[in-house]
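pinging the channel bc i need a second pair of eyes. not urgent but kinda urgent?? the chain im working w is below, pasted from the shared doc
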Amino acid sequence: MSENEKEKKANEAETEVAETEKPVKEKKIKETKVIHSLVTFAVLVGVMSVAIIHYEVDPHVPMFIGVVAAACVALYLGYDWKRIEKSMMDGIYRALQSIMILAIIGILIGVWIVAGVVPAMIYYGLKLLSPSIFLLATVLICSITSLATGTSWGTMGTMGLALIGIAAGLGIPAGITAGAVISGAYFGDKMSPLSDTTNLAPAMAGTDVFTHIKFMMQSTLVAYIIALVFFTFMGFHYVSGGQTADLSAVNELSDGLRSTFSINPALLLPPLIVIVAMAFKIPAIPGITLGIIAGAICGIVFQWDSCTFGDIMGCGMGGYVSNTGVAALDDLLTSGGLTNMMSSIALTMIAMMFGGIMEETGQLRVIVEKLMGLVRGPVGLVAMTEITCVLSNATMPEQYISIVVPGRMYAGAYDKMGLHPKTLSNALESAGTVTSALIPWNTCGVFIKATLGIGTLSYLPFAVFNYSMPIICVVMAALGLTLANKDGVSFRKAKKLAKAGN
């Protein structure tokens, strides 16, 4: 080959390399406007409302239709599919820790039930019942049951139903008793690390469940104490010291627990270990795992005739199936297991797919920017978050969605204001979780009406914990107690530290 031919070949090769290295012209992406976001939310709200109210289906597929709507709007704006797909995966990745915790909690519930830990908590809770302090005891019993099981619905459908019957015998109006049942059940649901909403809120906000629970404690206890004082006073008004009640329903539950499980105060040790782990700032996953190990040991020691290592592993996987012979108790205790937690895990993943697209394409940003025009500082942001949660409960009538949508909407706004994610997660649960019971067409309001046979308007004035919780959260935000900076220090404490430093 001649020198000229070699030179020609080299020039051709250089030209080819240069052509391949030319930047590919990207498709022009349109500016995201409020109308684009409104289209996505209109589809989500419409589908969610019809699916839940009319067809009474779970929120998973309606939420996925919302994902499809968000993706279609993203394609219209000019985003390519690879970028949309990546945004969905990025959204799921942000919630992976919470998904892992949900899975481990499923195992924990199954192990704690077969080991007798949950039955022991319920059994000792029932011992609090006394006609002279009936309404106060009702709140406490439902709180303990909901804390032990992580479910307000299960508590209301079992303990709540029995307590409504006892109240009738004492002459206490059903609406007041239902208010006590609901207040206690939602306190437990809100504060229990076994509750799916208690895990969903920090997942949406970007923090962990133990940090979330510890930060909620102060404002939640204030609302809870108000409820306890209210129902103590109401109890004195309706029940005189000499009255007796038919406690056969409660005795049946206690006897069913006694006949199936060996009840011992030492069975309260596993939940105590989890509480201590929270207090010592042990991360959530090892803290919950310690609770599982302690529960398994207690099961083998105290339920040695009915709980083998194989039973513990089986219930950790598939959940516990109760056979006490008491229908209400069997409904409550048939729970737990990794497989039974998959519904909550699936909803979290689908919700984060939706959030990922909405954040990547700016569809959340444009809505929040409009709303933020009405917000004046961190306190206003907390108030706006809670208003959005209540509106979500009314328009997309499902408790989970009232946490998911506002959670992803405002996460960036909290970050920009220098607020810790636990500030957001606290606001989400202080409104999203508890106000669902106050809306007649929400799934929670419908469940309460169907289960307890009492309409929303009858118990609404007496669901003290539920309607005082969002108010107290905002008031305490104004005091700097439910606002935390990026380092996790409350505004009030940070102010004191700053003064001390000067």
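so Residues 97-341 form one domain. and The chain is about 75% helix and 0% strand. — does that match what u expected or am i reading it wrong
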